[in-house]
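Hey team,

Sharing the Glycosyltransferase family 8 protein run so nobody has to redo it. Sequence (141 residues) first:
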Amino acid sequence: MSASADTYGDQTEWEKPGHENYFCACFMLLAPSEVLFNYYLYVLAGGDALKNAAYPEQDLLIWVHRENGQMPWRRIPIEWSANDGEMNDEIEGGVKSLHVKAWEGAMQTKEVGNAANEKTRKMWRELIKEMEEYYRLGSLT
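Structure output:
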């Protein structure tokens, strides 16, 4: 199990000593496993499941893949996934995925911490336009 570290603000903040290593289910890599799936179900049905989980799927994964457990998670390097709305350096540096809210009206959501800045929203709109044009032309052939 590998995942990005959850962070707000500067994406390099979690690389500093003492920063909490918080598992984020926003971007994960895992191998399909029926045995592991059954273990997740076992944990959910048993007394080990976290109580009052704010993010049920993420909190389950945090518990099962905790650092002091039998199957600890590993952090995916920042060049693979970033989750901050002010990511100009990461985008220009070639980050592979963004976990941001770039759609119209994203600033009005309750989680504005991940709202993309105008530069990223413009890039998002251009990519959507390119994708729609690609599929429009493909449907003509």
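Residues 100-140 form one domain.

Ping me if you want the raw files.
A.
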